[in-house]
């Protein structure tokens, strides 16, 4: 069936009018190229935005206290309150499918001011009182020493883990950091570790200007008692924190004597919900890319089909002679289909190769100029290439089907009379 003479004939037919063949192939080439470029650009944007999330546990919500907006149980409207450390135990007991709960207190931030001193050097940094689990919710790379552990919490050790930005501001270049002391609002803390992490703004600078100390030592040193400023709460894999959020907030309202319908008293940020919105956006972008690319490809396939109809018309006499000599109609039909598929696949593969070279060039350019905000490593998966090949084969069959049907409908006597 796939003999040498058949392939020789296919090549002769397609090269007999090379300019026409190239113009026909360009439509398919352009459609596949556009599809690959659109998908690669979408993937680059997706990679860039997801990188901004960093390694933070996305199935997480953050919860903090605000002023109440309703009177309740004799307590006034506008009341300020704090979560308590016992609220953490209450969450563990009453809310299923929780993986981590990290209560946190904070100094610095928007309130600013130089709050850290070492010798004659001073600086304004965010200082967090944390539990060990926070490193699993907001990962960081420990570059020397260690992070907070449970013994630090139990023994209220005044130790600190500082970022590279703090180290640069308070220490000389080759000065030993571990075992030294820094003074946070007049209280000495011994540095036992340094870290580096990427912040959400992309350059990582602000993420290095933070200091982590044990929650218990923070509360004791800065007179916070059992108050909790805010919490990071992560659900187990397979359970959405978004679905648990309402129960969590209702429990806190009960514990803190807040009106059940008070929507302002407890602030929250659902990272999982935001992440899913981003995911949905990228799904929509991929669908649009496929839609636009396939529409362009269809226009190319229509061009192939039209040209194959012209080719069949030009070969009417030849087809008539072959029919008169007894050639099977399926053999003629197969010949037309093979010509169509061959032209489609060759032009499509050229589009895939050009798309791959384009993506390689963009990645090389990005490597040379450095990272670009919200755009990183544009690429297409092997699955996309396989899908493109399947589309090409199906498209080739469709493009050749009508001309092939037209060819076998020609009666030998009519074909021989054709001029």
TrEMBL record:
Membrane topology: Multi-pass membrane protein
One annotated Gene Ontology cellular component of this protein: plasma membrane
Source organism: Cellulophaga tyrosinoxydans
Keyword Transmembrane: yes
Name of protein: Putative ABC transport system permease protein
InterPro entries xref list: ABC3_permease_C, MacB_PCD, Macrolide_Exporter_MacB
Protein location: Cell membrane
Record flagged with keyword Transport: no
Transmembrane segments: 21-41, 287-312, 341-362, 382-402
Domain ABC3 transporter permease C-terminal: 291-408
Keyword annotations of the record: Cell membrane, Membrane, Transmembrane, Transmembrane helix
MacB-like periplasmic core domain sequence ranges: 21-249
Family: Belongs to the ABC-4 integral membrane protein family.
Primary localisation category: membrane
């Amino acid at each position: 069936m796939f003999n040498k003479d058949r392939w020789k004939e296919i090549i002769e037919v397609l090269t007999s009018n090379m300019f026409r063949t190239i113009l026909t192939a360009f439509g398919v080439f352009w459609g596949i190229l556009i599809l690959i470029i659109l998908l690669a650009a979408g993937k680059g944007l997706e990679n860039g935005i997801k990188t901004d999330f960093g390694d933070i546990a996305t199935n997480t919500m953050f919860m903090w206290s605000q002023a109440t907006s309703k009177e309740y149980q004799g307590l006034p409207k506008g009341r300020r309150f704090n979560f308590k450390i016992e609220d953490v135990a209450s969450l563990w007991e009453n809310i299923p499918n929780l993986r981590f709960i990290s209560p946190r207190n904070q100094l610095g931030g928007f309130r600013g001011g130089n709050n850290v001193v070492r010798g004659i050097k001073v600086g304004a940094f965010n200082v967090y009182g944390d539990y060990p689990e926070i490193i699993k919710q907001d990962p960081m790379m420990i570059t020397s020493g260690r992070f907070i552990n449970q013994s630090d919490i139990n023994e209220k050790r005044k130790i600190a883990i500082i970022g590279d930005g703090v180290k640069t501001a308070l220490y000389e270049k080759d000065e030993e950091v571990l075992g030294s002391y820094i003074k946070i609002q007049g209280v000495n803390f011994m540095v036992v570790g340094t870290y580096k992490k990427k912040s959400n703004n992309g350059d990582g600078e602000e993420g290095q200007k933070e200091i982590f100390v044990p929650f218990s030592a923070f509360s004791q040193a800065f007179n916070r008692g059992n108050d909790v400023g805010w919490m990071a709460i992560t659900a187990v894999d397979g359970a959405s924190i978004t679905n648990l959020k309402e129960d969590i907030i209702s429990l806190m309202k009960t514990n803190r004597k807040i009106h059940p319908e008070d929507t302002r008293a407890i602030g929250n940020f659902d990272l999982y919900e935001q992440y899913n919105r981003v995911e949905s956006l990228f799904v929509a972008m991929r669908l649009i890319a496929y839609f636009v690319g396939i529409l362009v490809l269809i226009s190319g396939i229509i061009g192939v089909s039209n040209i194959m109809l012209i080719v069949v018309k030009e070969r009417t006499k030849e087809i008539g002679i072959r029919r008169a000599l007894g050639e099977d109609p399926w053999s003629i039909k197969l010949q037309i289909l093979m010509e169509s598929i061959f032209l489609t696949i060759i032009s499509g593969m050229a589009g895939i190769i050009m798309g791959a070279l384009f993506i390689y060039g963009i990645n090389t350019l990005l490597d040379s100029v450095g990272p670009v905000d919200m755009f990183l490593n544009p690429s297409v998966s092997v699955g996309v290439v396989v899908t493109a090949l399947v589309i090409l084969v199906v498209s080739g069959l469709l493009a050749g089907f009508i001309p092939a049907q037209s060819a076998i409908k020609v009666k030998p006597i009519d074909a021989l009379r054709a001029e």
